[in-house]
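Q: Can I see a sequence and its folded structure?
A: Here is a first one.
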Amino acid sequence: MKRSVFLAAIAIFAFAIPGLAQTPNPTPASKKTYKTYAAAMAAGKKLIAEKKKSDAEEAFEQAAALGKTDAQKADALIEAAKSQKESYDIGSTGGKYKGTNFTIYHHPKAVQSLDTALELAGIDDEKRAEIRLLRVDVYFAASKATDAHNRLVPDIEKKANKPIVLVIREEMTALAGAASTPPDLKVEALIRKAQAFQNFRGSYTTSSDLRWAFDALKAGSEMAGASDSAKASALLQIAELARVSNNSNLFVQAFEAVTKLPKATPTQKHTAATELASVLIQNDRIEPGRKLLTDALKVPGLSVVEVGGIHRLLAVSYVREAISTKAAGAAETALITSARNELEAAIKQTKFKGDDLAEAYRGNAEFLRRFNDSKYFQLAREQLKVALAVPRASEKQKAKVQYEIGETYRLENKIAEAIAAYKLVTNANPQYFGYAEQRIAELTRAKP
């Protein structure tokens, strides 16, 4: 958007609240003028990586002006809109309320960039579909920005004379139904159609809203010609919607369907396997859950974090087995040893040393203590004690770990032990020393 147009938009915002004269803080002028489309696009992507969004916007806007074909201009405008979707300026009021800051989001600029791209005659239907999908993402982002000066959604609703959810629903229905829309993008349109009510109203409020959301996602998961990854995206959304609506059967069915898609992405397979395994383990179906996790470890392309997460969940499975079977003696020792081995396998996925290694053990402990049983808490404290013994860990990191030992006792409701652990937190880490002092005061007052 040209700066003159943006300033005109600011003038409109200034009259949004009667009695307030509002002036935006000036946006700095572009620091560089680019001579070619390629240079401007490369600079914009580099600036995005450096989190310099305002400068990136201007680079992409220049790229759009420098593009020699409509395809190049569209790509530049799409990148500009992506940046604008996440960008904002800080303004301040004048007059009686002088000095009060407010936020001016760039969502209207993003929509204008995308509308401009849609007007280009030389782009194909696939590119037009991509632009329309991104425009809905801007609407979603605008709905979450609650600042009073964000007028995008109200203005769209006023112009369309209907709620924004219906605007999105109708546009995405048309996009998914168009023969020229590629199958994967049809799935994306159906996903956004289903997300509309949840994004704009916080939850699905009526059975009919819920039904057509499920129907849209089901259609996406069965879309002829769509890739496995696109279908998996729809299935994962079904699982999330089932979670919101407390439909446990559908929740499980959706994840099971993802595991049967051979070309789903590694992350999609990881999500489905770990979510399903969590449910199975929680319901004491240990062996099927463990098999899902061991099979998931064989999926190529998983990240270090994903592999580590599988090992952590495998550790949980062994602790859960010890609890559910009431194992004792050698049997219990074997299960807890297996759990320790899985936690160590999670750590070995990285090459961490010093503070980073101590933090990884602390992460193991934080994961374990989500599960409410003394065996989990005991194993969590073991991990924290290992963290304290990590070579070359700083005193600052050790203070944080010691605080977490106190937290683990507190969560287990062992108040005396928690207070004793908090008292060992040193001032090498003033932040966690302060937290420990607060906990001691709280727990001392709470003691009978």
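Q: Show me another, different protein.
A: A second, unrelated one:
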Amino acid sequence: MLLELKLRKVGNSVGVVLPKEALSYLKVGEGDVLCATESAEGSLRLSPAKSDFSRQMQVAQDVVARYRNALRELAK
């Protein structure tokens, strides 16, 4: 599926309106939460958010922040 989406001003922010085809493909609707993750190619990937995933990502970010120096040394 290839969709060209236009950015629109929403208050003080900029937003994207997803067409019905994208919503049905993602199996989401108004009020649902989407998760945007960075891909290796520098693009963003949208997927329906799972409550566990958000909590797991927060824990992972905390671990990376806490052990930043150790992880940097291990990466050498």
